[in-house]
Amino acid sequence: MKNLFCLKDLSVEEIIHILDVAKECKEGKYIDACKGKIAANLFFEPSTRTQYSFQVAQAKLGFHVISFNASASSMNKGESFYDTVKTFSSFGVDAIVIRDRQDEYYKQLTTINTPILSGGDGKKDHPTQSLLDLMTIREQFGHFEGLKIAICGDVKFSRVAHTNIEVMERLGMKCYISGPEEYREDQYEYIDFDTAVKEMDIIMLLRVQHERHDSEMQISKEEYHEKYGLTMERVHQMKENAIIMHPAPFNRGVEIADDVVECEKSRIFPQIENGVFVRMAVMMRALED
Questions:
Q1: pLDDT band (50, 70, 90) for residue 241
Q2: Which residues, other chains included, contact 15 with Cβ-Cβ below 8 Å and sequence gap of 6+?
Q3: For the chain, domain boundaries
Q4: Residue of 145, 139, 94, 98 lying closest to 277 (CA atoms)
Q5: Which of 16-25, 121-130, 136-145 has the lowest mean pLDDT?
Q6: 3-state helix/strand/coil string of 3-30
Q7: 268 contacts 18 by C-beta, under 8 angstroms
Q8: Distance of alpha carbon 85 from its chain centroid, rounded?
């Protein structure tokens, strides 16, 4: 049984192995490798890409998939988060995928004897998103060592940023942050956005996480786009082999211009595609002895 809560728990060698298996999945291997197994997807927070790419990954592997609907569950009668998860474990499912608004929700689940894979927790970690980002970067550059990435936008409230910076630095990448002062974190090295556009190998944009804020954004969407939005004018200033990434959902006309979303340098939809293969790899890993 192998849980997946955060990438800090994995060695570089383990991370590279997952990426290798994901590449094999993309090549068509492991179809129906988990036929007859049952996966339960417990998403207590709304999701499109993570929830349904897990479901597609599970279907390719041959899992029977149970999708949990929190709004129609006994949680409306007062059932606790722990008791809900324990119930699915008691059903005898083979793996559970969980996404929740709580930071480190998994610390409540140490007595659960079913493999648990995180689909994201609060603003702390999003391991499979980082793995699909790494897969996309490796496809583009063939390596990680020495690459420079700027993660731009709402870093403070982004589990994607926190997970990516930790693992990317372990892999030898140089990570910077950019964006409005209210969304920065002092432990990370800041770079001016227009400088980043010209110097980075990867520009990774983040949407503003309004649902995690206590107050409204201090600048307007129009001002944000003018100062920190990736426009085609800025794209033309990027290095020849540089790429654009975004974990999505993206807000067109705020952090990214409409015509940039699918431009030549954009890898946004290839990231989404790679999410299926990464999630196939971690689902198989969860069932390993």
A1: very high
A2: 7, 131, 134, 167, 171
A3: 7-125+273-286, 127-267
A4: 139
A5: 121-130
A6: CECCHHHCCHHHHHHHHHHHHHHHCCCC
A7: no
A8: 22
More confident residue, 209 or 107: 107
Alpha carbons 194 and 229: distance in angstroms, whole number: 10
DSSP-derived pairing of the beta strands 174-178 and 148-152: parallel
- State the Cα–Cα distance between residues 152 and 19, nearest whole angstrom: 25
CB atoms within 10 A of CB 217: 16
- CA distance from start to end of the chain: 6
Beta strand spans in the chain (E)? 38-43, 64-68, 95-100, 116-121, 148-152, 174-178, 202-205, 243-245
Picking from 17-21, 188-192, 197-201, 208-212, which range would have the lowest pLDDT averaged per residue?
A: 208-212
| Concatenated DSSP letters of 168-217 | HHHTT-EEEEES-GGG--TTS-B--HHHHHHH-SEEEE----GGG-SS--
Query: Which pLDDT value is given to residue 216?
Result: 59
CB 137 within 8 A of CB 103: no
Average of per-residue pLDDT across 205-226: 73
- Place domain 7-125+273-286 in its CATH homologous superfamily: Aspartate/ornithine carbamoyltransferase (3.40.50.1370)
CATH of 127-267, one of 3.40.50.20, 2.60.120.260, 3.30.390.50, 3.40.50.1370: 3.40.50.1370
Q: Give the predicted TM-score (pTM) of the model.
A: 0.94
Residue 241: CA count within 13 A, CB half-sphere: 8
Q: How many other CB atoms are there within 10 angstroms of residue 11's CB atom?
A: 10
> With b meaning 16 or more CB within 10 Å and e meaning fewer, what string describes 121-151?
bbbbbbbbbbbbbbbbbbebeeebeebbbbb
**Residue 213 confidence (pLDDT):** 41
